[in-house]
Design brief:
The complex is a heterodimer of chains A (256) and B (349). By secondary structure, chain A is α/β, with parallel strands linked by helices. Chain A has helices at 43-50, 73-79, 96-105, 123-136, 151-163, 181-198, 209-215, 233-238, 240-247, 251-255, and strands at residues 3-14, 17-28, 32-36, 58-63, 66-67, 81-83, 169-173, 201-205, 218-223, 226-231. Chain B has a domain at 22-239. Chain B has a two-stranded antiparallel sheet. The chains are: A alpha/beta (256), B mainly alpha (349).
């Protein structure tokens, strides 16, 4: 197996706060990998660095054998890395279908200026978009303004419009955060299905341990901007450093 | 409204607008018509860029004045007289679009309030240039070439030219609205960074819309210049022009196609009428009143007449019944049980 997505010693500071301090992670092709860690451990910052929303102070990001460090977001997206956001970022005043079409338009280059003004240009995208909405289960709401969707439905919409571009890797930032249990299972099923049927690679940040342990084959633990442990769920679950990072150092131990 | 009713209403409206100068021949009334059409064009052009992208431009006078001056300078230097001057309108459009490119490249790097401030700054730079260069005629401005049209029906051809400009601009706005380009613009309005992340070339798209808006505004600026026979730095590059456009768009419905049109049709005749009343001499009262209208609009009709009115109609029609918005059918996908409470808006919409 080869690492499809790798970060190598990524550093990022905000003023005096060292958000990332040499984070090195590796995601194997065709796996569902998890990234966990306490609040403020740099998970989202690492996502931002990978997807080009922030520039690292040092370190490198590799996608296959291609360095994608410092590429702008649209280039990263075009290269095949899709992402969702912790606080969903959808286009609230566009309909659900229009949201999907925005994601689709990046796929084909308009041949000339006139095709920008044509409507037919994307009737073929419409079909694909509706299929994906059906896949995540919100096709009934295609013509509703996206701003009127519930939080969980927004998460599904975000997942759907990342899928439009058919990325090789999908980064999910807290896909289960603030979502009801039924919907959490639904999201987990969709991730599994994409992973097994299409071989899509996932990297997800999540605080819901049940979700992470049930879904991921490899888990990396980030603490204070540095990766501390990486391995299969059973190993990570029992690692003392993880327990310390998550639950704090044992009080009795500290008192001694 | 059924499509048939809508179509009939549209045809009736077009008939009224086209027949207007044939039925009403009093020049002081047709004057209202010409200026209203000029502002319908300018407000629609403003809306093509600002309404779609959410970038509020207060620098449209840059294009308006540039169009007027281009026409004046070209006609003067190339000795063009008579009706042929209108062949220069495409040149004015080109200049408007050309001015929009460097203007946009500077101003569109920033957003929101900073963008607004930069548009105002650029606008004052243009006013100063018009005052201080010699080829623009300095502070006394330029006079338009003489048009040998009979005085009694002088306004009529102007009305039709302005109407054609208005129709053209509205048509462009409509085409953009339903196109991929328009969708990209509205995505930028909602979340520009996210749009960029999904592969929207934000700068290119914004700049294109700005240039289209600038071209249409420059054309109507040139028509206006002919109509009032002269342009001065203070009238060509007039800060009130921009404020009026924004007020028209906000009153009618910012972002919709019909909104700015309706706003222009209300505000411009109202202003002209107020200015013509002897007891309001000097015209400053109309400005105070416009300020008051602006305040009322922002406070009570923040989204404008068209969207708020549309909501009101929907509300009246659906009273007691669930809203048409399929909010009632919302539920989690696949699960089918009602566990997504945040969207149960019911009939409240």
């Amino acid at each position: 197996m080869t690492a499809l997505l790798r970060t190598d010693g990524v550093m990022k500071a905000y003023g005096g706060v060292q958000a990332l301090n040499g984070a090195t992670i590796s995601v194997e092709e065709g796996t569902v990998a998890g990234l966990i860690g306490p609040n403020g451990s740099g998970k989202t910052t690492l996502f931002n660095v990978i997807t080009g929303y922030q520039r690292p102070d040092a370190g490198a990001v590799w996608f296959g054998d291609k360095a994608i460090t410092n590429l702008p977001p649209d280039k990263v997206f075009a290269a095949g890395i899709g992402r969702t956001f912790q606080l969903t970022r959808i286009f609230a005043r566009l309909t659900v279908l229009e949201n999907m079409l925005i994601a689709a338009q990046g796929r084909d280059k308009p041949k000339n200026l006139l095709s920008w003004f044509g409507r037919d240009a994307w009737t073929h995208h419409r079909r694909h978009a509706l299929d994906l909405l059906a896949f995540v289960g919100i096709e009934r709401h295609a013509d509703v303004l996206a701003g009127s969707l519930s939080y969980g439905q927004r998460k599904l919409l975000e997942l759907a419009y990342v899928l439009v571009a058919d990325p090789a890797v999908i980064l999910l930032d807290e896909p289960a955060g603030g979502v009801n249990p039924t919907l959490i299972n639904h999201i987990a099923d969709r991730i599994r299905q994409l992973n097994t049927e299409q071989g899509t690679t996932f990297l997800l940040v999540e605080h819901n341990m049940e979700f992470v342990m049930g879904l991921c084959s490899t888990i990396t633990v980030l603490e204070s901007g540095k990766d501390v442990v990486s391995g299969p769920p059973d190993i990570v679950r029992t690692d003392k450093r993880v327990l310390d990072a998550y639950l704090g150092v044992d009080l009795e131990e500290e008192a001694r | 409204m059924t499509p048939l009713l809508k179509g009939t209403a549209l045809i009736a409206l077009i008939a009224i607008v086209v027949a207007f100068p044939q039925v009403v021949t009093n020049p002081s009334v047709t004057n209202y018509g010409v200026l209203a059409m000029i502002f319908v064009t300018a407000a629609s052009a403003w809306n093509i860029f600002s309404g779609n992208t959410g970038y509020i431009s207060l620098g449209q006078a840059v294009f308006y004045g540039s169009g007027a001056y281009t026409m004046g300078i070209a006609a003067r230097d190339w000795n063009i007289t008579g009706d042929t001057v209108f062949a220069l309108l495409p040149l004015c459009a080109a200049v408007g679009a050309l001015v929009a490119v460097p203007f946009g490249l500077i101003a569109l790097r920033v957003r929101r309030h900073t963008f607004i401030v930069i548009t105002i700054a650029v606008f004052f730079i243009f006013q100063l240039m018009a005052t201080n260069f010699s080829f623009t005629g300095g502070s006394s401005g330029l006079d338009s070439p003489f048009l040998n049209w009979p005085a009694a029906s002088y306004n009529t051809p102007f009305y039709y030219i302005a109407l054609a400009c208005a129709a053209g601009t509205i048509a462009i706005a409509w085409l953009i609205r339903r196109s991929r380009f328009g969708l990209q613009l509205r995505a930028i309005r909602d979340d520009e960074d996210r749009a960029r992340g999904l592969g929207v070339k934000a700068m290119r798209v914004k700049l294109s819309a700005f240039a289209i808006s600038g071209a249409a505004t420059a054309v109507i600026g040139a028509v206006w210049f002919f109509y009032i026979n002269q342009v001065e730095p203070q009238t060509g590059f007039d800060p009130l022009f921009d404020l009026t456009l924004v007020l028209m768009a906000f009153l009618g419905g910012y972002g919709s196609i019909t909104g700015p049109v309706l706003g222009a049709l209300i505000i411009e005749p109202l202003t002209l009428w107020l200015n013509s009343q002897p007891q309001f001499s000097g015209g400053s009262l109309s400005e105070i009143l416009l300020g008051a209208v602006f305040l009322v609009t922002v406070l009570f009709l923040p989204r404008g007449i068209i969207p708020t009115g549309g909501e009101l109609i929907t509300k009246l029609r659906t009273r007691g019944r669930p809203a048409v918005i399929p909010a009632t059918t919302f539920g989690p996908p696949a699960a089918g049980t009602a566990s997504t409470p945040s969207v149960s808006s019911g009939g409240a919409r």
